[in-house]
Amino acid sequence: MPIAISTLVRPIILSGGSGTRLWPLSTPARPKQFLPLVGERSLLGETFARLSDPALFSAPTVICGAGHVEQVQVIAASLGLSSPRIVAEPCARNTAAAVALAALTATDPDELLLILPSDHHIERPDLFRATVAEALAAAEAGMIVTFGMKPTRAETGFGYIETGAVAIGTVRHVARFIEKPDAERATAMIDDGRFLWNGGMFFARASTLVEAFEQHSPDVIAAVRASIDDPAALLVTPGADRFAATPAIAFDHAVMEKHDRTGVIPSDFGWSDVGSWTATYERSVQDGGGNAVEPGSAVIDGSGNLLRSSGPRIITFGVDRLMILATNEVVLVAPLDDAQRVREAYERYRELTSDT
Amino acid sequence: MPIAISTLVRPIILSGGSGTRLWPLSTPARPKQFLPLVGERSLLGETFARLSDPALFSAPTVICGAGHVEQVQVIAASLGLSSPRIVAEPCARNTAAAVALAALTATDPDELLLILPSDHHIERPDLFRATVAEALAAAEAGMIVTFGMKPTRAETGFGYIETGAVAIGTVRHVARFIEKPDAERATAMIDDGRFLWNGGMFFARASTLVEAFEQHSPDVIAAVRASIDDPAALLVTPGADRFAATPAIAFDHAVMEKHDRTGVIPSDFGWSDVGSWTATYERSVQDGGGNAVEPGSAVIDGSGNLLRSSGPRIITFGVDRLMILATNEVVLVAPLDDAQRVREAYERYRELTSDT
């Protein structure tokens, strides 16, 4: 069913993350949104593709680190897209600053902005777009709408949203934002049924966001505004010193938790933050033995393994439930279910490389 | 105790092997003798060092594949040795042809040749040299002396030598050569006590070897002789077509098993053929957790692992008793105790690389 709406939505793609949870393939120079972790396309490429619906979306704007502009352009070009508008952050200042950049560089104060991460995977893009269309009326009416993912397990790595009364259409009021819970609390929320995962996406008019900032975090919006010389440029380059003066705070803390007119739309489009190698494995195509293997590598007589390489081929036999990750610089081998310890391995690697 | 003998021994280093048992670090282009598998030196470098005793040995001759001449020279130079005399085989024709090359290119028919592999590890080089000195009288007297290693386990991967009566000094007559046995036979031989491992080393005068060839395998020595244009050259290059006509047969089969005047000297100098990754692990320096790790790589919270790389660093955590082997082309991960399956992995790798 084609989506028909009166006003196009401007996607704002946040491409600032540079976590180490997917090291060694993800590095500060090439964070995970630039990697083909789940399918053949990079996560950013998947995001571009998901937003390529001219009946719903106008051309996206990408907010990324200054060092990543070229990678963003290359991925857009590889999809046959024209070069996107880019806001190049001179340094990382968390999501409040990024959302403020989005709001202040909008082409029109009434523009509907759909702000979303570049490094998440969405299994059912059609349903994602349908959910955006459903949330449109609430965003047009001046709410800041978040997307609440139907939880599938008692995850302690995500924030949760408690849903309140119906607001507009399927959008509900937000009763409360809950930070990453402990296991007991997470289980209780799953059992309760009113709690959804916070997917880190925001949908609102530019003017709604600016006003919410002015009300709850005027220092953030003032610092970001002061850093922008030409908010209409095709490549916006905030001044480094001025932008660095912006408080580094998450948009949830800076605005959402304090704001009245927040909404949440229950969503079930197969979202994953691809936040660990275990999550990557689960979302990947697997062979009959449950191995997630790229062409060029091979598992002989083993099951449940994840093999990923940007460098050498990988061959393995007789092992189960391992992650084997390779680049031209380093190979990491570990139990797939210990993905939370990858940071420890990264730290050791940094020690080793600083020795030489 | 310094060794004093009347005639110097000429070491002949056989550097023709190119097995796949130590793949992926060992490849046809860079067989295992060129790799630092056990210590910091390559096995060939270790061999050169072991033979650098001017009271016992004259300068060595190396018999290697034509494609490996430069690697041999580089390793000799890295030890501060002058470039060795080299016989460059245009193709591999097994050990009988190599021993015939050694005998026919000797500088004097009476020269004492100590023919030994380049890709073995010897734990106690002093004892090795003392054993050579002990065997000298038998070699001078016209015997072909082999070195019989005191067995430490019922190994099925080696040939065995049954010792006979005393011949000269500690050298005994060979009662019989036994091919690789099954497990039951191997255990029986260990229990018996008269059986030693065949280390593939031979010690004899050049003229003794030539005469033994004429008697038992005249076709081999005739073909090799016909292939050599200048037996006194510093770099001997047998004619390719003529050398290729030599029957490819092991020296044990061609001569030793048929010859009367063969001897064996019981040896206990810590010999290993480094014939598998398990053997490499056992001979390597290990940390407190039993991990054999090179500087630059690391095991966090794991034990009994072997890490070897000629390319990327290796970091691993939470795994035990694995071999993790890396080059710039390929990474192999497998249980350390399944080293005999490495060939299978190599075959799969060849399939994968021929696809692309």
Overall description:
Two copies of one chain form a homodimer. Chain A has 356 residues and is of the alpha/beta class. Chain A has two domains: 9-272, Spore Coat Polysaccharide Biosynthesis Protein SpsA, Chain A (Alpha-Beta Complex), CATH 3.90.550.10; 277-355, no CATH class. Helix content of chain A is 30%, strand content 26%. Chain A has a five-stranded mixed barrel. In chain A, strands 14-16-17 form a three-stranded mixed β-sheet, with no helix packed on it. A two-stranded antiparallel sheet of chain A has the order 5-12. In chain A, a hairpin with a 3-residue loop joins strand 16 and strand 17. Chain A is globular. The mean pLDDT of chain A is 94. The A-B interface holds A 24, 296-298, 300, 309, 311-319, 322, 324, 326-335, 338, 341, 344-345, 348-349, 352-353, 356 and B 24, 296-298, 300, 309, 311-319, 322, 324, 326-335, 338, 341, 344-345, 348-349, 352-353, 356. Strand 15 of chain A pairs parallel with strand 17 of chain B.
Summed over residues and divided by their number, the pLDDT of chain A gives a mean of 94
Strand content of chain A: 25-35%
Strand order of the largest sheet of chain A: 6-9-7-8-11
Q: CATH topology of the largest domain in chain A, anyone?
A: Spore Coat Polysaccharide Biosynthesis Protein SpsA, Chain A
